[in-house]
């Protein structure tokens, strides 16, 4: 497992590299945890793995309606495969480029979670069995 704390999203995303959802079947999972200020509150989280996006979901209504309204930039062809109100939502992504992943994560952190660009980001990568 590797962990890194970046001072901004661009720096933190550089460590994701080949562990991203753009590289299906590589067996790696990346967990991004982000927060502002002290670490007193649990961080917001986004998980990227083999063609899937799983993220902490804060609302009760359909993510396919709420996320675009909030300004989240999901990659083209994203398909909602599961969600629980106020808990999580999971998408399958057929094709995506690394730059699209960065834009998506950036929009989730800033527009949906309301975090500043200077938020703290911890990235954990692990190889799944």
Helix/strand layout:
Elements: E1 2-6, H1 9-13, E2 28-35, E3 44-49, E4 52-56, H2 63-70, E5 79-84, E6 88-92, H3 98-112, E7 120-127
Your description of this structure?
The chain is of the alpha+beta class. Helices cover 22% and strands 33% of the residues. The longest helix is centred in the C-terminal third of the chain and has 15 residues, at 98-112. The protein has a seven-stranded antiparallel β-sheet. It is globular. It starts with a strand and ends with a strand. The model is unreliable at 1-5 (pLDDT under 50). The chain has helices at residues 9-13, 63-70, 98-112; strands at residues 2-6, 28-35, 44-49, 52-56, 79-84, 88-92, 120-127. A hairpin with a 2-residue loop joins β3 (44-49) and β4. The chain has three helices and seven strands.
